[in-house]
Design brief:
By secondary structure, this protein is mainly alpha-helical. It has 13 helices and four strands. A four-stranded mixed beta sheet has the order 2-1-3-4, sandwiched between helices. Helix 1 packs across helix 9 and helix 10 packs parallel to helix 13. The two termini are 16 Å apart. The relative contact order is 0.12. About 2% of the residues have low confidence.
């Protein structure tokens, strides 16, 4: 194996890749599916309610607003700036807090607070911000709520939002489809067009070709998975760890794709094989869609150890130590599949025998 030859072959793959329909699908399908599902379930463009404040006297209200994570707070220096920001939709609601606001409330004196509302803001955002302002005002005034509200949860009390349920499917679509299908289809296509035989007169070996095709699939699928996570607002401060896990998952998927590409003779057989094992590949994501199904069943499928560490990081802020066991299994799968791939490459050392 030569890194120079791999680099030359990888450049060739990058030039020829965009001409491959699978390459286009690997880029377009995850993005389109992510956008459609986000629009369908209202997770795109919904965001947090945006509150603008001009605080003329360091009020406790602005401090309470800053501590509330479910809204997005922006401070303005002047009332004119706040009014202009509200008019153009930079904030959903803007309030001007007078200098003596807290003292007047504590003394039980009447006070005035100017509020601006963007005319195109969502009703639910207005309701949330209005309710929050009333609650903060009562808290500063030292007033207790006159009514105690007792709530009883009915139905599924542990139901996951649909966005959380669908995220595993989006991750698998991004990683598995690109990293597996791209090298597999490219390898089969070259066998059908006999371009691999043409490379037999060069110093390139089968291992060089396998590595070049795998690197393109790994790089593309890792980037697309990160883009999908960003579109769904799932990235957090552990983005580096997420990228590392996605990279390992892409390596495993690329190895599977190259094994299939090496064993399958034509593109029709490849697609038939993909259809046959599709349920096995996406089973962990399908099980995640229905929490009533025992979730331990997903552990039976290899791709569980690709997607679950990512879910643990982006949804539960897991650290490396928390997912070490899952990553250990994923590394073992990579090693076993890599050993199978090495045997195929050794058997077909010269390209003319692929």
């Amino acid at each position: 194996m030569s890194l120079y030859r791999v680099g030359v072959l990888l450049y060739r793959e990058m030039v020829q890749g965009p001409k491959n329909i699978i390459f286009i699908f690997a880029v377009v399908v995850p993005l389109v599916l992510s956008l459609v599902l986000a629009l369908l379930f209202g997770t795109l463009f919904s965001g947090k309610p945006r509150l603008g404040i001009v605080d003329e006297g360091s009020s406790q209200l602005s401090q309470a607003a800053a501590a509330m994570t479910s809204i997005r707070l922006t401070s303005f220096a002047t009332q004119v700036a706040l009014e202009e920001a509200t008019r153009r939709g930079a904030v959903d609601m803007g309030v001007v807090i007078p200098a003596a606001f807290d003292a007047q409330l504590a003394a039980g004196q009447p006070t005035t607070m100017v509020a601006y509302v963007w005319g195109e803001s969502l009703l639910r955002d207005r309701a949330l911000l209005g309710t929050a302002l009333v609650a903060w005002t009562r808290q500063i005034a030292g007033q207790e709520l006159p009514v105690t509200l007792t709530t009883t949860m009915l139905g599924d009390t542990v139901a996951l939002p649909w966005q959380d349920r669908i995220l595993p499917l989006l991750i698998l679509m991004s990683v598995v489809f690109g990293a597996m299908m791209l090298p597999a289809s490219s390898l089969v296509s070259e066998k059908q067009h006999r371009t691999l035989t043409a490379l037999a007169i060069t110093p390139a070996t089968t291992a060089d070709v396998y590595l070049a095709k795998g690197l393109l699939g790994v790089g593309l699928s890792t980037v697309m998975a990160l883009v999908v996570l960003a579109l769904n607002g799932a990235l957090n401060e552990r983005t580096g760890l997420v990228a590392g896990v996605l990279l390992l998952g892409a390596i495993f998927s690329a190895e599977l794709g190259i094994v299939m590409g090496a064993l399958v003779k034509d593109i029709n057989s490849l697609f038939a094989t993909i259809k046959a094992i599709g349920l096995l590949l996406y089973a962990p994501a399908l099980i995640a869609l229905f929490p009533d199904i025992p979730q331990w069943i997903a552990r039976i499928f290899p791709t569980y150890y690709l997607v679950q560490p990512v879910i643990e990081i982006v949804q539960h802020n897991a650290r490396l130590a928390d997912i070490a066991g899952l990553l250990g299994v994923l590394l073992a799968l990579i090693a076993v599949t890599g050993a199978i791939l090495a045997l195929l490459a050794r058997r077909n050392y010269r390209l003319g025998t692929v």
